[in-house]
Specification:
It is a single chain. The longest helix has 14 residues, at 151-164. This protein folds into 2 domains: 2-150 and 310-342, Alpha-Beta Complex (Quinone Oxidoreductase, Chain A, domain 1); 157-288, Rossmann fold. The relative contact order is 0.16. It has 10 helices and 20 strands. By secondary structure, it is an alpha/beta fold. The radius of gyration is 20 Å and the shape is globular. Strands 3, 7, 8, 11, 12, 19 and 20 form a 7-stranded mixed sheet that branches. Strands 15-14-13-16-17-18 form a 6-stranded parallel sheet, with helices on both faces. It has helices at 38-46, 96-99, 145-148, 151-164, 179-190, 203-211, 247-256, 276-281, 295-304, 323-330, and strands spanning 2-8, 11-16, 26-35, 48-49, 52-53, 58-59, 63-71, 83-86, 89-90, 110-111, 128-132, 136-138, 171-175, 195-199, 216-218, 237-242, 257-265, 285-288, 314-319, 338-342.
Length: 343
């Protein structure tokens, strides 16, 4: 089978790999669609991020959907022909965090397309992938495989929303409106936020944020004074979702969030220096959010029930033979949002 494999920065190849037939409790999925994520771009452009580096060829991809091609012994939840979204998380279920219900904090997590461990966990940008049956979540007929492949990034945003608490009637700030930021706007709007202000320094993300429910979209570089009124009286926003991973955006949130408001940090960009005196004096709750857990199944259900429409976030689709071009476009924030590869 063909697979999209990274060998070194900018060295992306279509390699031929062996298929693995499903064993007991496993299913083989014929991949139909895969979305390029920010972490995929880090591997493509830089060979990794932080201390995480590719040390061997690695198949990329963890936002995928497809059709069950074969099932192993004992599988009852799906059958050949079932359309599924594939959950890229494979927690061990036996460590202390899994036993406490914190599966996303698993001490022995195997997550598709990750160089955090060695040998690396191979990704799912291949024509077939074999997974545990519980990782294959059936999708309703009303949504396409392109939408189903958005279950993973949507679940990231649903988990972030859970970290923030109730959003109904709240004033929300979203900084960084790439695919995750745009989906965060969608989730906040669905959860009943009264006002959603989105910021970014590229035009395409801001346009998309308005399409999916932002009340206002601001480029702080082009309009540096636009956010100043929100700082009045110690801040205006109840919740800040920081999706850019930049220090300046997080510091802006600390300035604009009201006393006892909440900041949820989604984007990862390295170390940051923060105005701790302001953070303490305003009693702001600064929370991290990491991947997702049972929100994956919820994401599939919400799309299937028509509660959330992710289609405005999908901007481009390339055949797998043009994977290199797909990655190049995905890295241009002025031209693309979520770029997907069709297998």
């Amino acid at each position: 089978m063909r697979a999209v494999v990274i060998h070194a920065p900018k060295d992306l190849r279509l390699d031929t790999l062996a298929e693995r037939q499903p064993g007991p409790g496993e299913v083989m999925v014929r991949i139909g669609m895969g979305g390029i994520c920010g972490s995929d771009l880090h591997y493509y452009n830089h060979g990794g991020f932080g201390t995480v580096r590719i040390r061997e060829p690695m198949t990329l991809g963890h936002e995928v959907s497809g059709t069950v091609a074969a099932v192993g012994e004992g599988v009852a939840n799906v059958r050949p022909g079932t359309r599924v979204a594939v959950n890229p998380s494979r927690p061990c279920l036996v460590c202390k965090y899994c036993e406490a219900g914190l599966h996303n904090q698993c001490l022995d997590m195997r997550f598709f397309g990750s160089a955090m461990r060695f040998p690396h966990v191979q990704g799912a940008f291949s024509e077939h992938v074999t997974v545990l049956a519980r990782q294959a979540v059936p999708v309703p007929e009303r949504i396409s495989l392109a939408e189903a492949a958005m279950a993973e990034p949507l679940s990231v945003c649903l988990h972030a929303a859970n970290q923030a608490g109730a959003l109904f009637g709240k004033r929300v700030l979203v900084t960084g409106c790439g695919p995750i930021g745009a989906l965060m706007v969608l989730v906040a709007r669905t959860a009943g936020a009264a006002e959603i202000v989105a910021t970014d320094i590229a035009s395409r993300p801001l346009e998309t944020a308005l399409k999916v429910g932002a009340t206002r979209a601001i480029d702080p570089v082009k309009d540096p004074d636009a956010l100043k009124p929100y700082a009045a009286d110690k801040g205006s926003f109840d919740v800040h979702f920081e999706a850019s991973g930049t220090e300046v955006a997080l510091r802006t949130g600390i300035e604009l969030v009201r006393p006892r408001g909440t900041i949820v940090q989604i984007g990862v960009g390295g170390e940051a220096k923060l105005p701790m005196n302001v953070l303490v004096a305003k009693e702001i709750a600064l929370r991290g959010t990491f991947r997702f857990d049972d929100e994956f199944d919820l994401a599939v259900r919400m799309m299937g029930d028509g509660i959330i429409d992710v289609r405005p976030v999908i901007s481009d689709t390339f055949p797998v033979a043009d994977a290199h071009a797909a990655f190049e476009l995905a890295g241009d924030r002025n031209k693309a949002m979520k770029v997907q590869i069709a297998f």
